[in-house]
Amino acid sequence: MRSHILGNIELDETPLSRDLEYLSAVPRGEEGYDEFSNGYWKNVPLWNASGDSGDDLYRDTDSPAQLTEHGKNTGYLRGLVEKVFDTDRITMVRARNLVDAVVIPHRDFVELDRDAEQYFRVLMFLEDNPAAFHSNDDTVINMRPGEVWFLDAGSVHAAANFSSDPRQMLCVDFAFDGEYEESDIFRDPAHYRPSTDARVIDRPPLPAERRAAIGDLGKVVDRSNFKEFLFFLSKVHFRFDVPAEATYDWLTEIAASSGDRVLVDKAAELREYAIGARELSERFSINSWN
Amino acid sequence: MRSHILGNIELDETPLSRDLEYLSAVPRGEEGYDEFSNGYWKNVPLWNASGDSGDDLYRDTDSPAQLTEHGKNTGYLRGLVEKVFDTDRITMVRARNLVDAVVIPHRDFVELDRDAEQYFRVLMFLEDNPAAFHSNDDTVINMRPGEVWFLDAGSVHAAANFSSDPRQMLCVDFAFDGEYEESDIFRDPAHYRPSTDARVIDRPPLPAERRAAIGDLGKVVDRSNFKEFLFFLSKVHFRFDVPAEATYDWLTEIAASSGDRVLVDKAAELREYAIGARELSERFSINSWN
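ok -> C-alpha coordinates follow
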Protein backbone atom coordinates (compact mmCIF):
# COMPACT_ATOMS: atom_id res chain seq x y z
CA MET A 1 0.00 0.00 0.00
CA ARG A 2 1.42 3.36 -0.98
CA SER A 3 1.68 6.47 1.17
CA HIS A 4 -1.37 8.69 0.86
CA ILE A 5 -3.48 11.33 2.59
CA LEU A 6 -6.07 9.94 5.04
CA GLY A 7 -7.66 13.16 6.17
CA ASN A 8 -7.15 16.80 6.91
CA ILE A 9 -7.19 18.38 10.36
CA GLU A 10 -7.75 22.08 10.96
CA LEU A 11 -4.97 23.29 13.27
CA ASP A 12 -5.52 26.05 15.80
CA GLU A 13 -2.40 28.19 15.40
CA THR A 14 -2.37 29.98 18.77
CA PRO A 15 -2.35 27.00 21.16
CA LEU A 16 -0.29 25.03 18.60
CA SER A 17 2.46 27.64 18.58
CA ARG A 18 2.74 27.37 22.39
CA ASP A 19 3.25 23.60 22.11
CA LEU A 20 5.77 24.01 19.29
CA GLU A 21 7.71 26.45 21.43
CA TYR A 22 7.75 23.96 24.31
CA LEU A 23 8.92 21.16 22.00
CA SER A 24 11.70 23.33 20.55
CA ALA A 25 13.01 23.92 24.06
CA VAL A 26 13.15 20.21 25.00
CA PRO A 27 16.86 19.35 24.92
CA ARG A 28 17.71 16.87 22.24
CA GLY A 29 18.78 13.54 23.70
CA GLU A 30 21.00 10.97 22.09
CA GLU A 31 18.83 9.57 19.32
CA GLY A 32 18.33 5.83 19.17
CA TYR A 33 18.92 5.77 15.44
CA ASP A 34 21.47 8.54 15.12
CA GLU A 35 23.40 6.82 12.33
CA PHE A 36 20.47 7.18 9.93
CA SER A 37 20.77 10.94 9.86
CA ASN A 38 23.16 13.87 9.75
CA GLY A 39 22.30 17.39 10.88
CA TYR A 40 19.65 18.04 13.48
CA TRP A 41 17.13 15.32 14.22
CA LYS A 42 14.98 15.29 17.32
CA ASN A 43 12.32 12.88 18.57
CA VAL A 44 10.24 13.84 21.60
CA PRO A 45 7.97 11.02 22.82
CA LEU A 46 4.49 12.22 23.86
CA TRP A 47 3.06 8.72 24.33
CA ASN A 48 5.13 5.53 24.47
CA ALA A 49 5.26 2.04 25.93
CA SER A 50 6.71 3.06 29.29
CA GLY A 51 5.50 6.64 29.84
CA ASP A 52 9.18 7.56 30.32
CA SER A 53 10.06 10.82 28.55
CA GLY A 54 13.55 9.57 27.73
CA ASP A 55 12.41 6.39 25.98
CA ASP A 56 12.33 6.96 22.24
CA LEU A 57 12.82 3.47 20.84
CA TYR A 58 9.83 2.21 18.92
CA ARG A 59 8.92 -1.28 20.02
CA ASP A 60 6.01 -3.63 19.93
CA THR A 61 3.63 -3.04 22.79
CA ASP A 62 0.12 -3.80 23.88
CA SER A 63 -1.82 -0.66 23.25
CA PRO A 64 -2.74 1.73 24.70
CA ALA A 65 0.43 3.73 25.09
CA GLN A 66 1.25 5.83 28.18
CA LEU A 67 1.29 9.62 28.17
CA THR A 68 4.76 11.02 28.99
CA GLU A 69 5.68 14.23 30.79
CA HIS A 70 6.16 15.88 27.38
CA GLY A 71 2.68 14.73 26.35
CA LYS A 72 1.26 16.34 29.50
CA ASN A 73 3.11 19.59 28.72
CA THR A 74 1.72 19.88 25.20
CA GLY A 75 -1.95 20.17 26.00
CA TYR A 76 -3.14 21.24 22.58
CA LEU A 77 -1.49 18.33 20.79
CA ARG A 78 -2.69 15.91 23.47
CA GLY A 79 -6.25 17.11 23.00
CA LEU A 80 -5.91 16.92 19.23
CA VAL A 81 -4.62 13.33 19.28
CA GLU A 82 -7.32 12.25 21.75
CA LYS A 83 -10.06 13.92 19.73
CA VAL A 84 -9.00 12.69 16.29
CA PHE A 85 -7.45 9.23 16.78
CA ASP A 86 -8.48 6.00 18.45
CA THR A 87 -6.00 6.17 21.32
CA ASP A 88 -6.67 2.50 22.20
CA ARG A 89 -4.78 1.55 19.04
CA ILE A 90 -1.89 3.94 19.51
CA THR A 91 1.50 2.47 20.43
CA MET A 92 3.54 5.66 20.26
CA VAL A 93 3.25 9.37 19.49
CA ARG A 94 6.35 11.42 18.82
CA ALA A 95 6.93 15.05 17.98
CA ARG A 96 9.74 15.10 15.47
CA ASN A 97 11.94 17.70 14.00
CA LEU A 98 14.53 17.46 11.26
CA VAL A 99 16.55 20.56 10.34
CA ASP A 100 19.21 20.93 7.69
CA ALA A 101 19.53 17.18 7.53
CA VAL A 102 18.71 14.00 5.67
CA VAL A 103 17.50 10.66 6.99
CA ILE A 104 18.97 7.96 4.73
CA PRO A 105 16.62 5.65 2.81
CA HIS A 106 15.49 2.82 5.07
CA ARG A 107 12.64 0.52 5.99
CA ASP A 108 11.04 0.36 9.44
CA PHE A 109 9.32 -2.43 11.36
CA VAL A 110 11.49 -5.09 9.71
CA GLU A 111 12.81 -6.06 13.12
CA LEU A 112 9.47 -6.49 14.86
CA ASP A 113 7.27 -9.49 15.53
CA ARG A 114 4.15 -8.83 13.53
CA ASP A 115 3.81 -8.58 9.78
CA ALA A 116 4.67 -5.10 8.59
CA GLU A 117 1.01 -4.63 7.57
CA GLN A 118 -0.07 -4.79 11.21
CA TYR A 119 1.78 -1.51 11.83
CA PHE A 120 0.28 1.72 10.65
CA ARG A 121 2.24 4.97 10.83
CA VAL A 122 0.69 8.38 10.42
CA LEU A 123 2.58 11.66 9.93
CA MET A 124 1.23 15.16 10.25
CA PHE A 125 3.25 18.33 9.70
CA LEU A 126 2.58 20.98 12.33
CA GLU A 127 4.16 23.82 10.34
CA ASP A 128 4.69 24.58 6.70
CA ASN A 129 8.17 24.11 5.26
CA PRO A 130 8.51 23.95 1.47
CA ALA A 131 12.09 22.64 1.79
CA ALA A 132 11.10 19.57 3.85
CA PHE A 133 10.40 16.37 1.96
CA HIS A 134 9.49 12.74 2.44
CA SER A 135 10.14 10.08 -0.12
CA ASN A 136 8.56 6.71 -0.54
CA ASP A 137 9.80 4.41 -3.28
CA ASP A 138 9.46 6.57 -6.42
CA THR A 139 7.54 9.56 -5.00
CA VAL A 140 8.72 12.69 -3.22
CA ILE A 141 6.18 14.79 -1.34
CA ASN A 142 6.01 17.98 0.68
CA MET A 143 3.32 17.64 3.34
CA ARG A 144 1.00 20.52 4.17
CA PRO A 145 0.26 21.22 7.86
CA GLY A 146 -2.80 19.31 9.03
CA GLU A 147 -2.64 16.66 6.32
CA VAL A 148 -2.85 13.23 7.96
CA TRP A 149 -0.49 11.01 5.97
CA PHE A 150 -0.22 7.27 5.98
CA LEU A 151 3.49 6.62 5.57
CA ASP A 152 4.34 3.21 4.25
CA ALA A 153 7.28 2.85 6.64
CA GLY A 154 7.71 -0.82 5.73
CA SER A 155 8.80 0.22 2.23
CA VAL A 156 11.97 2.17 1.43
CA HIS A 157 11.54 5.78 2.50
CA ALA A 158 13.64 8.79 3.44
CA ALA A 159 13.24 12.34 4.71
CA ALA A 160 15.12 15.58 4.27
CA ASN A 161 14.93 19.21 5.21
CA PHE A 162 17.15 21.28 2.95
CA SER A 163 16.58 24.44 4.97
CA SER A 164 17.65 25.68 8.39
CA ASP A 165 14.01 26.21 9.35
CA PRO A 166 12.21 23.72 11.60
CA ARG A 167 9.52 21.38 10.34
CA GLN A 168 7.95 19.99 13.46
CA MET A 169 5.54 17.13 12.91
CA LEU A 170 3.60 14.46 14.74
CA CYS A 171 4.38 10.81 14.13
CA VAL A 172 1.57 8.57 15.38
CA ASP A 173 2.05 4.78 15.40
CA PHE A 174 -0.76 2.26 15.54
CA ALA A 175 -0.65 -1.52 15.82
CA PHE A 176 -3.41 -3.98 15.02
CA ASP A 177 -3.96 -7.68 15.50
CA GLY A 178 -5.62 -9.22 12.48
CA GLU A 179 -7.63 -7.40 9.88
CA TYR A 180 -8.44 -3.71 10.05
CA GLU A 181 -9.53 -0.81 7.88
CA GLU A 182 -7.38 2.28 7.72
CA SER A 183 -10.37 4.32 8.87
CA ASP A 184 -10.07 2.40 12.19
CA ILE A 185 -7.31 4.73 13.33
CA PHE A 186 -9.82 7.56 13.73
CA ARG A 187 -12.04 7.97 16.78
CA ASP A 188 -14.76 9.45 14.59
CA PRO A 189 -14.93 7.87 11.07
CA ALA A 190 -15.95 11.30 9.73
CA HIS A 191 -12.26 12.27 9.98
CA TYR A 192 -11.46 9.66 7.35
CA ARG A 193 -11.35 11.64 4.10
CA PRO A 194 -8.69 10.17 1.77
CA SER A 195 -7.37 12.57 -0.82
CA THR A 196 -4.97 12.53 -3.75
CA ASP A 197 -4.51 16.29 -3.66
CA ALA A 198 -0.92 16.12 -2.42
CA ARG A 199 2.10 18.32 -3.09
CA VAL A 200 4.01 15.75 -5.15
CA ILE A 201 7.41 17.05 -6.26
CA ASP A 202 8.05 17.01 -9.97
CA ARG A 203 11.61 15.77 -10.45
CA PRO A 204 13.59 15.90 -13.70
CA PRO A 205 15.48 12.81 -14.88
CA LEU A 206 19.02 12.42 -13.55
CA PRO A 207 21.29 13.90 -16.27
CA ALA A 208 23.77 11.43 -17.74
CA GLU A 209 26.75 13.65 -16.90
CA ARG A 210 25.74 13.83 -13.26
CA ARG A 211 25.17 10.09 -13.18
CA ALA A 212 28.71 9.59 -14.51
CA ALA A 213 30.12 12.05 -11.94
CA ILE A 214 28.48 10.03 -9.16
CA GLY A 215 30.33 6.95 -10.38
CA ASP A 216 33.60 8.92 -10.34
CA LEU A 217 33.25 9.52 -6.61
CA GLY A 218 35.01 6.17 -6.20
CA LYS A 219 38.21 8.15 -6.82
CA VAL A 220 37.87 10.11 -3.58
CA VAL A 221 35.76 7.95 -1.24
CA ASP A 222 37.62 6.29 1.62
CA ARG A 223 36.91 5.22 5.22
CA SER A 224 37.39 8.76 6.50
CA ASN A 225 34.66 10.26 4.30
CA PHE A 226 32.33 7.33 3.55
CA LYS A 227 29.59 8.94 5.65
CA GLU A 228 29.65 12.24 3.76
CA PHE A 229 29.16 10.35 0.48
CA LEU A 230 26.34 8.27 1.96
CA PHE A 231 24.49 11.47 2.91
CA PHE A 232 25.26 13.04 -0.45
CA LEU A 233 23.90 9.99 -2.29
CA SER A 234 20.82 9.85 -0.04
CA LYS A 235 19.85 13.34 -1.18
CA VAL A 236 20.02 12.76 -4.94
CA HIS A 237 16.56 11.18 -5.28
CA PHE A 238 14.87 14.18 -3.67
CA ARG A 239 15.97 16.28 -6.59
CA PHE A 240 16.08 13.85 -9.51
CA ASP A 241 13.65 11.16 -10.60
CA VAL A 242 15.40 8.03 -9.32
CA PRO A 243 14.17 5.60 -6.66
CA ALA A 244 15.41 6.12 -3.08
CA GLU A 245 16.95 2.68 -3.21
CA ALA A 246 19.41 3.78 -5.93
CA THR A 247 21.39 5.35 -3.06
CA TYR A 248 22.68 1.88 -2.19
CA ASP A 249 23.42 0.90 -5.79
CA TRP A 250 25.67 3.94 -6.16
CA LEU A 251 27.25 3.39 -2.75
CA THR A 252 28.07 -0.18 -3.77
CA GLU A 253 29.49 1.05 -7.07
CA ILE A 254 31.79 3.73 -5.61
CA ALA A 255 32.90 1.40 -2.81
CA ALA A 256 33.89 -1.16 -5.46
CA SER A 257 35.82 1.36 -7.55
CA SER A 258 37.62 2.69 -4.43
CA GLY A 259 39.51 -0.60 -4.35
CA ASP A 260 39.03 -0.91 -0.56
CA ARG A 261 37.49 -4.26 0.34
CA VAL A 262 36.41 -2.90 3.74
CA LEU A 263 34.31 -0.22 2.01
CA VAL A 264 32.71 -2.86 -0.21
CA ASP A 265 31.72 -4.88 2.87
CA LYS A 266 30.46 -1.78 4.67
CA ALA A 267 28.27 -0.79 1.72
CA ALA A 268 26.78 -4.30 1.60
CA GLU A 269 26.16 -4.38 5.36
CA LEU A 270 24.61 -0.93 5.33
CA ARG A 271 22.22 -1.84 2.52
CA GLU A 272 21.19 -4.95 4.42
CA TYR A 273 20.78 -3.04 7.69
CA ALA A 274 18.87 -0.08 6.24
CA ILE A 275 16.59 -1.74 3.72
CA GLY A 276 17.05 -5.44 4.46
CA ALA A 277 16.28 -7.22 7.74
CA ARG A 278 17.80 -5.86 10.91
CA GLU A 279 17.36 -7.05 14.47
CA LEU A 280 15.60 -4.95 17.10
CA SER A 281 18.09 -2.66 18.88
CA GLU A 282 20.90 -4.04 16.77
CA ARG A 283 23.30 -1.16 16.49
CA PHE A 284 25.05 -0.56 13.23
CA SER A 285 27.83 1.94 13.02
CA ILE A 286 28.39 3.54 9.65
CA ASN A 287 31.80 4.72 10.67
CA SER A 288 33.39 1.90 12.61
CA TRP A 289 35.93 -0.17 10.74
CA ASN A 290 36.88 -2.94 13.14
CA MET B 1 53.95 30.93 17.66
CA ARG B 2 53.29 27.33 16.68
CA SER B 3 51.39 24.71 18.66
CA HIS B 4 53.66 22.75 20.99
CA ILE B 5 53.82 20.72 24.19
CA LEU B 6 54.16 22.81 27.37
CA GLY B 7 54.27 20.03 29.91
CA ASN B 8 53.10 16.59 30.85
CA ILE B 9 50.67 15.78 33.66
CA GLU B 10 50.37 12.35 35.22
CA LEU B 11 46.67 11.43 35.23
CA ASP B 12 45.14 9.31 37.97
CA GLU B 13 42.95 6.88 36.03
CA THR B 14 40.50 5.83 38.75
CA PRO B 15 39.11 9.24 39.80
CA LEU B 16 39.51 10.46 36.20
CA SER B 17 37.28 7.69 34.86
CA ARG B 18 34.52 8.72 37.30
CA ASP B 19 34.66 12.30 35.98
CA LEU B 20 34.69 11.11 32.36
CA GLU B 21 31.62 9.00 33.07
CA TYR B 22 29.85 12.03 34.55
CA LEU B 23 30.79 14.17 31.54
CA SER B 24 29.56 11.52 29.10
CA ALA B 25 26.18 11.56 30.82
CA VAL B 26 25.74 15.36 30.60
CA PRO B 27 23.16 15.88 27.84
CA ARG B 28 24.55 17.66 24.86
CA GLY B 29 23.05 21.12 24.46
CA GLU B 30 22.74 23.11 21.29
CA GLU B 31 26.30 24.08 20.50
CA GLY B 32 27.09 27.72 19.95
CA TYR B 33 29.19 26.95 16.90
CA ASP B 34 27.30 23.97 15.53
CA GLU B 35 27.93 24.90 11.90
CA PHE B 36 31.66 24.29 12.28
CA SER B 37 31.19 20.59 12.80
CA ASN B 38 29.27 17.51 11.70
CA GLY B 39 28.84 14.39 13.83
CA TYR B 40 28.96 14.53 17.62
CA TRP B 41 30.54 17.56 19.27
CA LYS B 42 30.01 18.40 22.90
CA ASN B 43 31.31 21.25 25.08
CA VAL B 44 30.71 21.11 28.83
CA PRO B 45 31.77 24.31 30.64
CA LEU B 46 33.51 23.65 33.99
CA TRP B 47 34.53 27.27 34.55
CA ASN B 48 33.19 30.24 32.58
CA ALA B 49 32.39 33.93 32.77
CA SER B 50 28.97 33.51 34.39
CA GLY B 51 29.18 30.23 36.35
CA ASP B 52 26.09 29.13 34.39
CA SER B 53 26.38 25.51 33.22
CA GLY B 54 24.49 26.26 30.03
CA ASP B 55 26.75 29.10 28.89
CA ASP B 56 29.31 27.76 26.43
CA LEU B 57 30.18 30.82 24.38
CA TYR B 58 33.78 31.90 24.78
CA ARG B 59 33.99 35.61 25.42
CA ASP B 60 36.36 38.12 26.84
CA THR B 61 36.12 38.35 30.60
CA ASP B 62 37.99 39.62 33.59
CA SER B 63 39.59 36.59 35.11
CA PRO B 64 39.08 34.65 37.27
CA ALA B 65 36.34 32.51 35.80
CA GLN B 66 33.48 31.04 37.87
CA LEU B 67 33.14 27.35 38.65
CA THR B 68 29.93 25.85 37.16
CA GLU B 69 27.77 23.03 38.48
CA HIS B 70 29.60 20.67 36.10
CA GLY B 71 32.93 21.86 37.50
CA LYS B 72 31.71 21.07 41.01
CA ASN B 73 30.62 17.59 39.89
CA THR B 74 34.00 16.68 38.41
CA GLY B 75 36.11 16.88 41.53
CA TYR B 76 39.20 15.22 40.14
CA LEU B 77 39.45 17.55 37.14
CA ARG B 78 38.70 20.56 39.33
CA GLY B 79 41.54 19.59 41.68
CA LEU B 80 43.85 18.96 38.73
CA VAL B 81 43.17 22.36 37.15
CA GLU B 82 43.56 24.16 40.49
CA LYS B 83 46.80 22.34 41.28
CA VAL B 84 48.44 22.72 37.86
CA PHE B 85 47.27 26.06 36.45
CA ASP B 86 47.17 29.65 37.64
CA THR B 87 43.40 29.88 38.03
CA ASP B 88 43.60 33.69 38.35
CA ARG B 89 44.44 33.79 34.63
CA ILE B 90 41.81 31.31 33.50
CA THR B 91 38.83 32.68 31.53
CA MET B 92 37.18 29.36 30.71
CA VAL B 93 37.62 25.62 31.15
CA ARG B 94 35.63 23.21 29.00
CA ALA B 95 35.46 19.46 28.78
CA ARG B 96 35.11 18.65 25.11
CA ASN B 97 34.28 15.61 23.12
CA LEU B 98 34.26 15.05 19.39
CA VAL B 99 33.14 11.68 18.03
CA ASP B 100 32.96 10.55 14.44
CA ALA B 101 33.16 14.14 13.31
CA VAL B 102 35.28 16.90 11.89
CA VAL B 103 35.55 20.55 12.93
CA ILE B 104 36.22 22.57 9.78
CA PRO B 105 39.43 24.62 9.54
CA HIS B 106 38.96 27.95 11.29
CA ARG B 107 40.61 30.63 13.40
CA ASP B 108 39.47 31.62 16.89
CA PHE B 109 39.64 34.88 18.82
CA VAL B 110 39.41 36.96 15.63
CA GLU B 111 36.19 38.51 16.93
CA LEU B 112 37.49 39.56 20.35
CA ASP B 113 38.91 42.81 21.69
CA ARG B 114 42.48 42.02 22.55
CA ASP B 115 45.26 41.04 20.17
CA ALA B 116 45.14 37.31 19.47
CA GLU B 117 48.47 36.94 21.31
CA GLN B 118 46.80 37.94 24.58
CA TYR B 119 44.76 34.73 24.46
CA PHE B 120 46.39 31.46 25.33
CA ARG B 121 44.57 28.16 24.80
CA VAL B 122 45.70 24.89 26.27
CA LEU B 123 44.38 21.44 25.33
CA MET B 124 44.86 18.19 27.22
CA PHE B 125 43.50 14.82 26.10
CA LEU B 126 41.99 12.85 28.97
CA GLU B 127 41.93 9.55 27.10
CA ASP B 128 43.95 8.00 24.32
CA ASN B 129 42.43 7.86 20.85
CA PRO B 130 44.76 7.19 17.91
CA ALA B 131 42.03 8.24 15.44
CA ALA B 132 41.61 11.74 16.92
CA PHE B 133 43.67 14.53 15.40
CA HIS B 134 44.31 18.23 15.59
CA SER B 135 45.80 20.21 12.78
CA ASN B 136 47.51 23.56 12.84
CA ASP B 137 48.66 25.13 9.58
CA ASP B 138 50.85 22.40 8.07
CA THR B 139 51.04 19.95 10.98
CA VAL B 140 48.71 17.16 12.10
CA ILE B 141 49.12 15.71 15.59
CA ASN B 142 47.60 13.05 17.80
CA MET B 143 47.80 14.16 21.43
CA ARG B 144 48.70 11.72 24.18
CA PRO B 145 46.68 11.88 27.44
CA GLY B 146 48.29 14.22 29.95
CA GLU B 147 50.23 16.23 27.37
CA VAL B 148 49.55 19.94 27.94
CA TRP B 149 49.36 21.50 24.48
CA PHE B 150 49.46 25.11 23.52
CA LEU B 151 47.09 25.35 20.59
CA ASP B 152 47.63 28.33 18.35
CA ALA B 153 43.90 28.93 17.98
CA GLY B 154 44.50 32.27 16.27
CA SER B 155 45.99 30.44 13.28
CA VAL B 156 44.05 28.11 10.98
CA HIS B 157 43.34 24.85 12.79
CA ALA B 158 40.92 21.94 12.65
CA ALA B 159 40.06 18.77 14.55
CA ALA B 160 38.72 15.37 13.66
CA ASN B 161 37.93 12.06 15.22
CA PHE B 162 37.66 9.39 12.55
CA SER B 163 36.45 6.77 15.03
CA SER B 164 33.25 6.18 16.96
CA ASP B 165 35.22 6.17 20.23
CA PRO B 166 35.22 9.22 22.49
CA ARG B 167 38.22 11.47 22.97
CA GLN B 168 37.38 13.61 25.93
CA MET B 169 39.73 16.48 26.58
CA LEU B 170 40.14 19.63 28.61
CA CYS B 171 40.29 23.00 26.90
CA VAL B 172 41.68 25.68 29.22
CA ASP B 173 41.64 29.31 28.11
CA PHE B 174 43.82 32.03 29.59
CA ALA B 175 43.85 35.78 28.91
CA PHE B 176 46.62 38.22 29.71
CA ASP B 177 46.99 41.98 29.64
CA GLY B 178 50.36 42.97 28.32
CA GLU B 179 53.45 40.82 28.21
CA TYR B 180 53.63 37.34 29.68
CA GLU B 181 55.68 34.15 29.49
CA GLU B 182 53.93 30.93 28.55
CA SER B 183 55.17 29.44 31.83
CA ASP B 184 52.89 31.97 33.58
CA ILE B 185 49.89 29.71 32.98
CA PHE B 186 51.21 27.25 35.56
CA ARG B 187 50.73 27.67 39.30
CA ASP B 188 54.09 25.99 39.90
CA PRO B 189 56.72 26.81 37.21
CA ALA B 190 58.09 23.27 37.67
CA HIS B 191 55.15 22.07 35.54
CA TYR B 192 56.56 24.00 32.59
CA ARG B 193 58.54 21.40 30.65
CA PRO B 194 58.28 22.11 26.90
CA SER B 195 58.87 19.12 24.68
CA THR B 196 59.10 18.35 20.98
CA ASP B 197 58.38 14.66 21.51
CA ALA B 198 54.93 14.79 19.91
CA ARG B 199 52.99 12.26 17.86
CA VAL B 200 53.20 14.16 14.57
CA ILE B 201 51.36 12.37 11.76
CA ASP B 202 53.41 11.58 8.70
CA ARG B 203 51.23 12.40 5.69
CA PRO B 204 51.97 11.42 2.09
CA PRO B 205 51.65 14.03 -0.69
CA LEU B 206 48.18 14.40 -2.23
CA PRO B 207 48.24 12.20 -5.37
CA ALA B 208 47.63 14.09 -8.61
CA GLU B 209 44.68 11.86 -9.57
CA ARG B 210 42.95 12.53 -6.26
CA ARG B 211 43.63 16.25 -6.62
CA ALA B 212 41.98 16.14 -10.05
CA ALA B 213 39.00 14.17 -8.68
CA ILE B 214 38.49 16.86 -6.01
CA GLY B 215 38.21 19.45 -8.79
CA ASP B 216 35.64 17.26 -10.55
CA LEU B 217 33.31 17.51 -7.55
CA GLY B 218 32.03 20.70 -9.16
CA LYS B 219 29.94 18.36 -11.35
CA VAL B 220 27.84 17.16 -8.40
CA VAL B 221 27.98 19.94 -5.81
CA ASP B 222 24.80 21.99 -5.39
CA ARG B 223 22.99 23.85 -2.61
CA SER B 224 21.48 20.64 -1.27
CA ASN B 225 24.85 18.95 -0.66
CA PHE B 226 27.30 21.83 -0.24
CA LYS B 227 27.73 20.93 3.45
CA GLU B 228 28.73 17.32 2.76
CA PHE B 229 31.44 18.51 0.38
CA LEU B 230 32.66 21.08 2.90
CA PHE B 231 33.12 18.32 5.50
CA PHE B 232 34.70 16.03 2.93
CA LEU B 233 37.20 18.72 1.91
CA SER B 234 37.93 19.58 5.55
CA LYS B 235 39.13 16.03 6.14
CA VAL B 236 41.59 15.78 3.26
CA HIS B 237 44.48 17.55 5.02
CA PHE B 238 44.40 15.10 7.93
CA ARG B 239 45.39 12.35 5.56
CA PHE B 240 47.48 14.11 2.91
CA ASP B 241 50.22 16.70 3.23
CA VAL B 242 48.34 19.86 2.30
CA PRO B 243 47.63 22.90 4.49
CA ALA B 244 44.26 23.03 6.30
CA GLU B 245 43.51 26.24 4.43
CA ALA B 246 43.46 24.38 1.08
CA THR B 247 39.94 23.29 2.09
CA TYR B 248 38.69 26.74 1.12
CA ASP B 249 40.67 26.89 -2.13
CA TRP B 250 39.02 23.66 -3.28
CA LEU B 251 35.60 24.78 -2.06
CA THR B 252 35.99 27.98 -4.07
CA GLU B 253 37.07 25.97 -7.12
CA ILE B 254 34.19 23.47 -7.08
CA ALA B 255 31.67 26.24 -6.34
CA ALA B 256 32.95 28.09 -9.42
CA SER B 257 32.74 25.03 -11.67
CA SER B 258 29.20 24.23 -10.40
CA GLY B 259 28.03 27.29 -12.32
CA ASP B 260 25.85 28.42 -9.39
CA ARG B 261 26.64 32.02 -8.43
CA VAL B 262 25.03 31.48 -5.00
CA LEU B 263 27.50 28.70 -4.24
CA VAL B 264 30.38 30.94 -5.27
CA ASP B 265 29.20 33.63 -2.86
CA LYS B 266 28.65 31.10 -0.07
CA ALA B 267 32.16 29.70 -0.47
CA ALA B 268 33.62 33.21 -0.28
CA GLU B 269 31.54 34.13 2.78
CA LEU B 270 32.42 30.89 4.52
CA ARG B 271 36.13 31.40 3.96
CA GLU B 272 35.85 34.92 5.35
CA TYR B 273 33.81 33.76 8.35
CA ALA B 274 35.94 30.73 9.22
CA ILE B 275 39.44 32.02 8.63
CA GLY B 276 38.90 35.76 8.08
CA ALA B 277 37.40 38.21 10.57
CA ARG B 278 34.01 37.41 12.06
CA GLU B 279 32.03 39.34 14.63
CA LEU B 280 31.36 37.99 18.11
CA SER B 281 28.14 35.95 18.16
CA GLU B 282 27.65 36.61 14.48
CA ARG B 283 25.84 33.54 13.24
CA PHE B 284 26.71 32.15 9.90
CA SER B 285 24.62 29.42 8.38
CA ILE B 286 26.37 27.13 5.95
CA ASN B 287 23.08 25.90 4.63
CA SER B 288 20.85 28.90 4.31
CA TRP B 289 20.43 30.33 0.83
CA ASN B 290 18.32 33.42 1.29
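Chain A has a mean pLDDT of 88.
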